Amino acid sequence: MIEFPKHFLWGSATSAYQVEGNNTNSDWWPWEKQTGKENSGAACRHYELYGQDFDLAKDLNHNTHRLSIEWARIEPLEGEFSDKELKHYVDVIFALKARNIEPMVTLHHFTNPIWFSQLGGWENSRAVGLFSRYCEFVVSVLAKHVHYWITINEPTIYSSHAYIFGTWPPQAKSLLKAKNVQDNQTWAHIKVYSLINKIYKEQNLPKPVIGIAHHISAVYSCKDSLRNRLAIFLRDQVYNYWILDNILRHKAMDFIGLNYYSRMLVDVKNWSLGSFLWGNCPDNHQPLKKNSLGWDIYPQGLLRVLLKLKKYNLPVIITENGICTNDDNQRWEFLYDHLKNVHLAIEQGVDVRGYLYWSLLDNFEWHNGYDPRFGLIDVNYTTFHRTVRESARKFAQVCKNGVLE
């Protein structure tokens, strides 16, 4: 029997664009149509059905839920803010609190207002100020109801997918632009960290808890070589730790939100920069089970990453960890094995405060559309009927008792 600490945060996560539906003022909405990608459309209709979804989360013994606010709903045109949409999110927060579920609110989860993208998005030197203005509008109203804030979700994934690989809008392929975007998002976090604290102080509220949700992969070598060792060092710096080091130099983080899914298996074939930064072993050496997107399932990597985060001497909350699969037995196996490794990290002195599974619901998985099934809850995209999976019920027992049998 494995016992987790008392007052552990147990639950799941969602993001607005992936579940709400009809986010017509967001940059992804026209991009899906222009590129012929699967359209997000009505998504899970969570915008209307959030009460039903939170009832299910409560029944599953979740005490925390991570959600995001859609910037494009709040500020559909530059400088024009919607009190109606802000009230919607107030109602969403109230719905969670009425069910004794702690809200953890993300202010930016990949999507931008169309007008912001037309100005150059996160490449624009005004981006930090524009984002801060939106955050001030939201936080000023929500402060008295929210304790946990995440400013930005996965800045390294956003910059790499939108500005290096070119798979997301604006489909740029430029290391220079990617670096600029990542720098701007880092500075945005630092500025908004101070802003949120200022708002709480002005409103005479207890100090909030603020972090980012940072994607980290466990980086391993396929075989030992000088090039592979160098690649591991570079990837750890570029993807995993540079952004944390930078933010913490400015003392602008209260916890590390960790999003962990898989490993990178490095096998550098030549001396090109691309090989060092994103080339992985093409030969399926050290084969592992995979999820339906072909990502390696490697629970031990979560322990390795958590132990590396110990040096920062900050609490860690696992803000995303999950599997897309059509085999629900595999989902429970994934959950069980990753939770075991979380507990091993706690035993070795890592201050892990919570675990949020990705995701509460099956949802729109960006450029991969609706095929990947990450949810604890199955969503029928024709009828929007929800069906709780057996893995969710097993996880519910862990959430209830803090015990992994």
Can you describe this structure in just a few lines?
This protein is α/β, with parallel strands linked by helices. Helix content is 44%, strand content 16%.
Structure, explained:
The protein is 44% helix and 16% strand. It is α/β, with parallel strands linked by helices and 405 residues long. It has a single domain (2-404), classed as TIM Barrel, CATH 3.20.20.80. An eight-stranded parallel beta barrel has the order 2-3-4-5-6-8-10-11, surrounded by five helices. A hairpin with a 6-residue loop joins strand 12 and strand 13 (386-388). It is globular. The chain starts with a strand and ends with a strand. The model has no long low-confidence stretch (mean pLDDT 97).
Q: Which keywords apply here?
A:
405 residues, alpha/beta, TIM Barrel, 8-stranded parallel beta barrel, two-stranded antiparallel sheet, 14 strands, 16% strand, globular
The pLDDT mean sits at 97
The Cα radius of gyration reads 20 Å
Structural class: alpha/beta
Count of all domains: 1
CATH superfamily: Glycosidases
Question: Separation of termini?
Answer: 5 Å
Helix-strand pattern = EEHHHEHHEHHEHHEEHEEHHEHEEEHE
Count the DSSP helices: 14
The CATH first-level class comes to: Alpha Beta
What is the correct CATH architecture? Alpha-Beta Barrel
Largest sheet: 8 strands, parallel, barrel
- Report the helical percentage: 40-55%
What would the principal axes of the Cα set say about the shape?
Answer: globular
